[in-house]
Amino acid sequence: MRKSRILAAGIITVGVIALILITGVIQISPPQGSQSFTPVVSVSRSSCDRLPGFFLIIADLSGFNDSIAHGAPLNPWPVVHVHLNDFVRFAVCNPDQTQAHGFAIQTYFDSGVALAPGDAVRIEFQAILPGTFVIYCNIFCTVHVFMVGRLIVSNP
């Protein structure tokens, strides 16, 4: 019993350190000549369906779109690629019946959104800053350290 607790604590510690390293390595500065970067993000209630033109993100006990099986946090998942000035649309749903999960995007949507069990939202914004941005869970949950993805905004 004690060995399993120590092992679990070690795994969680390694996950947290990996998350800190991943999010610390990917730092994005505002565009030159601007004091701050404040994107316009639209958030609205939704259903848990794959909507045309939307990236579907399932936030549940397996992470973001099964990110645990994809090796997160060391291998962030999902990885979303868009072009500069594209309109980015996410449909995020939480089919988990027992706990809330969060969804946020570094720089673009740092405030994020919390999804209660069964909730779903649409998140929309224009990708006006190139770079690599961390997608992460912004509330603490049991799989929190495994909920790490990437948004890559590139010049066409």
Note the total helix count: 1
Structurally, the number of domains stands at 1
Give the H and E element order: HEEEEEEEEEE
Proportion of residues in extended strands: 35-45%
Radius of gyration: 16 Å
Helix share, percent: 10-25%
Quaternary state reads single chain
Give the class from helix and strand content and strand pairing.
alpha+beta
Q: List how many beta strands DSSP finds.
A: 10
Give the termini distance in whole angstroms.
54 Å
Description of the molecule:
It is a single chain. With 156 residues, the chain is α+β, with helices and mostly antiparallel strands. The protein has one domain (2-29, 37-154): Immunoglobulin-like (Sandwich). The chain has one helix spanning 2-25; strands at residues 42-45, 55-60, 63-64, 79-83, 87-93, 101-105, 109-115, 120-126, 131-136, 148-154. The protein has a five-stranded mixed beta sheet, with no helix packed on it.
Topology summary:
Layout: H1 2-25, E1 42-45, E2 55-60, E3 63-64, E4 79-83, E5 87-93, E6 101-105, E7 109-115, E8 120-126, E9 131-136, E10 148-154
Parallel strand pairs: 2-5, 4-10
Antiparallel strand pairs: 1-8, 2-3, 5-8, 6-7, 6-9, 9-10
How would you sum up this structure in a few lines?
The protein is of the alpha+beta class.
Feature tags:
single chain, 156 residues, alpha+beta, five-stranded mixed sheet, 15% helix
